[in-house]
Amino acid sequence: MPTDHRPDLASVPDGSPLVEVVAVGETMVVLCPAPGEPLEHADRVAVSVGGAESNVAGYLARLGHRATWVSRVGDDPFGRAVVRHVAAAGVRVDQVVVDPAAPTGLYVKDPGPEGTAVHYYRAGSAASRMAPETLADPGLAGARVLHLSGITPALSASCRALVEHAATARPLAGSLVSFDVNHRARLWPAEQAAPVLRDLANRCDLVFVGQDEAETLWGTTDPLAVRRLLPDPETVVVKDGAVGATAMSRDAEPVFVPAPRVAVVEPVGAGDAFAAGYLAGLLRDLDPVRRLRLGHLVAAQALTSSGDNAPVPPWAWFERLLAAPDEAWSPLDLTGAPARV
């Protein structure tokens, strides 16, 4: 049987050995019929790629940061499509293992009058075979951030062990461990996920959680109550959709920044974009307010795009809005042309 192998490093857009962010998790092929057309009546589907952690890496790469995606894919056309898609965003993929014994995961969207249902076909996928040794490669050394999500521990026992190892043993010495709760009810019910995700989040340095997730998992919509549930991370960021986000650090007062208004085209991927923007602000040593602003501005790009990975404006556009006085930021409206401040 062929052994595991990795994509050729020559195919990686950025061949530099330096890495700022390591993002770990499964990325799948997405099949979707025409908008509003139920899957059972569709005679063709569009093929795309989606994955929370690789989305974060892609946005960070577009913002000028050196990001590496770590995962496993099958030795199949879907796996090759996934790797090509992630690499095209400027993300390094030399740490992706191609597994000849397991398939690439996929999910299928089924539009309907009550919304879009999602059907996963990921049980036994190549990515579900990730394990603690996934982070053993010395090529990952020196990363400033290791980004994980609550999707990965739901995939398999070995994936849960990987996340526990990353958060507790800290195999990437000196890296800040970032964790997006990202509860997926289709993978595990709230009563099963709640204690596991709380424990994992509490072992990390930076935690992102949606207010709706906090209510589903832990029965609260109060950011301060979430902070009390997660006392150990240096920073907890609670996102409240179109309202705004609150960052709570151990040694500082909570900081709330309202979200700018946008015309939403597709909400999928906005949470990943927000996390990427906030992490970019952290990597650039911005203050807490501007980290949250940058999270909102990158999320706005995702919200106004039909895909999981939206293009981003030049850095000068972000820089101008990050420098806006509070009285100009609060009423900021991005529904039309880029805002003027």
UniProtKB/TrEMBL annotation:
| Organism domain of life | Bacteria
> What is the E.C. number?
2.7.1.45
Span of domain Carbohydrate kinase PfkB:
20-313
Alphabetical list of Gene3D superfamilies matching this protein: 3.40.1190.20
Q: Any idea which GO molecular function terms this record carries? A: 2-dehydro-3-deoxygluconokinase activity
Q: Which InterPro entries match?
A: Carb_kinase_PfkB-like (IPR052700), PfkB_dom (IPR011611), Ribokinase-like (IPR029056)
Keywords for the protein's UniProt record, in alphabetical order: Kinase, Transferase
EC top class, as a word: transferase
Which PANTHER family did the record assign?
2-DEHYDRO-3-DEOXYGLUCONOKINASE_2-DEHYDRO-3-DEOXYGALACTONOKINASE (PTHR43320:SF2), SUGAR KINASE (PTHR43320)
Annotated family: Belongs to the carbohydrate kinase PfkB family.
Q: What is this protein called?
A: 2-dehydro-3-deoxygluconokinase
Which species is this UniProt entry from?
Answer: Micromonospora jinlongensis
The top of its lineage is: Bacteria, Bacillati, Actinomycetota, Actinomycetes, Micromonosporales
